[in-house]
Write a structure and sequence with these properties.
Layout (H helix, E strand, L loop, with lengths): L13 H9 L1 H8 L7 H9 L2 H15 L4 E11 L28 H13 L4 E6 L9 H13 L3 E5 L5 H10 L3 E3 L6 H7 L5 H13 L3 E3 L2 E3 L5 H12 L7 E6 L7 H6 L9 H14 L4 E4 L8 H9 L4 E4 L2 E2 L2 E2 L3 H11 L2 E2 L5 H8 L4
Parallel strand pairs: 1-2, 1-9, 1-12, 2-3, 3-4, 4-5, 6-7, 7-8, 8-9
Antiparallel strand pairs: 10-11
Helix pairs in contact: 3-10, 4-12, 5-6, 6-7, 7-9, 10-12, 12-13
This protein binds iron/sulfur cluster.
Iron/sulfur cluster binds next to loops.
């Protein structure tokens, strides 16, 4: 059992370990994280002097995670564009005039080929995204085949397909899907200003279906959409007060794409790029409030300096997407990531994620 399951407290001797192991309630308690954060507490973290916040986040980070290892994930768009939703940041929405062509769901073998390439490039997880409001039941057999095929290669699987019904979540769980991504995007208040075709509760309902099906949850959002600090507080607060923290928390910086609502609104304004220090603060507060989760630097990384990325790693980010493209947005390429890792002395994560290691430590009912 990994000692990080014990909130970073190293059991001092064998007797202690045995005593802890013998008490299932104690183990269960220790594998649970604090989910009663208040907005005031989270706002106070954001308000800390930057160096103090970074120190606290780095301290929490190394209690739960190997501090110099970063998880590598690859993201593939398996069905691009033509989405009926109106997410204001998204170039794949039919409401955007971004020039993204709609495609059909990729052929199963073509997806598996791309997964094999990702594995060869060192990825641990293969994430697949489809631009749908929700998958249709007729799509599910192909999706299930893809999940099984990618898993058979020894890669972790993650899907993001839009809203899920409970029976679809169950099908994905049965296929062995490791993670389902469904972002809450922003605070409940700001969400309404970015998306009108479904409400915030729909997002939470899908996360609930995923959790109940036994699939690990990946949920985060986007900063730099013109939201306020208070919205960023509300965004982290929503995730940190879910009944169980998401195992993965992607933190994206908006890539303002011309033709999207937010791209048109923010491009060429001072708000077109989130302030680097505020972005690092958001990463740090996510790390402190959700200590065991993987915090992933996602979209927007390609426009960050190496120094900003280094600060993010110090603040507790420990997962990135590799490759040249994130769905339809540019991403930092494998070569530049390799150079940055060498410069910073970082290596690819090899072991199991702490949140999952702790789950398997809890005895079955
Ligand atoms: S973010 Fe997803 S749901 Fe929203 S428009 Fe884009 S593809 Fe559709």
């Amino acid at each position: 059992m990994d000692v990080r399951c014990f909130g970073g407290k190293q059991p001092t001797d064998r007797l202690t370990i045995l005593a802890i192991k013998s008490d299932k309630n104690e183990i269960t308690k220790m594998t649970q994280m604090r989910t009663d954060w208040t907005r005031a507490e989270i706002a106070a973290l954001f308000d800390l002097p930057f160096t103090e916040l970074l120190f606290q986040a780095a301290s929490v980070h190394r209690e739960y995670h190997p501090p110099t290892q970063v998880q590598l994930c690859t993201l593939l768009s398996i069905k691009t564009g033509g989405c009926p939703e109106d997410c204001g940041y998204c170039s794949q929405s039919v409401h955007a005039d971004s020039g993204v062509e709609a495609t059909k769901l990729m052929d199963v073998q073509a997806v598996l080929q791309r997964a094999a390439q990702a594995k060869d490039a060192g990825s641990q997880r293969f994430c697949m995204g489809a631009a749908w409001r929700n998958p249709k039941d007729r799509d599910m057999p192909a999706i299930v085949e893809i999940v099984k095929g990618v898993r058979d290669m020894g890669l972790e699987t993650c899907m993001t397909l839009g809203m899920l019904e409970p029976h679809q979540a169950a099908q994905l769980a049965e296929a062995g899907l490791d993670y389902y991504n469904h972002n809450i995007d922003s605070s409940p208040e700001y969400y309404e200003r970015v998306i009108s075709t479904r409400d915030f509760q729909c997002r939470l309902d899908t996360l609930d279906h995923v959790r109940k099906a036994g699939i690990n949850v990946c949920s985060g959002g986007i900063v730099g959409m013109g939201e306020t600090r208070e919205d960023r507080v509300g965004f982290v607060h929503t995730l940190a007060t879910l009944p169980q923290h998401p195992e993965s928390v992607p933190v994206n910086a908006l890539v303002p794409v011309k033709g999207t609502v937010l791209g048109n609104m923010l491009a060429d304004t001072p708000l077109a790029k989130i302030d680097d220090i505020e972005f690092v603060r958001t990463v740090a507060v996510a790390r402190i409030t959700m200590p065991r989760s993987m915090v992933r630097l996602s979209a927007g990384r390609e426009s960050m300096s190496e120094a900003t990325q280094a600060l993010c790693f110090l603040a507790g980010a420990n997962s990135i997407f590799t490759g040249d493209k994130l769905l339809t947005a540019p991403n930092a390429g494998d070569d530049s990531d390799g150079a940055l890792f060498a410069k910073l002395g970082l290596t690819a994560l090899k072991g199991e994620e702490p949140a999952r290691a702790c789950k398997s430590a809890v005895p079955a009912e």
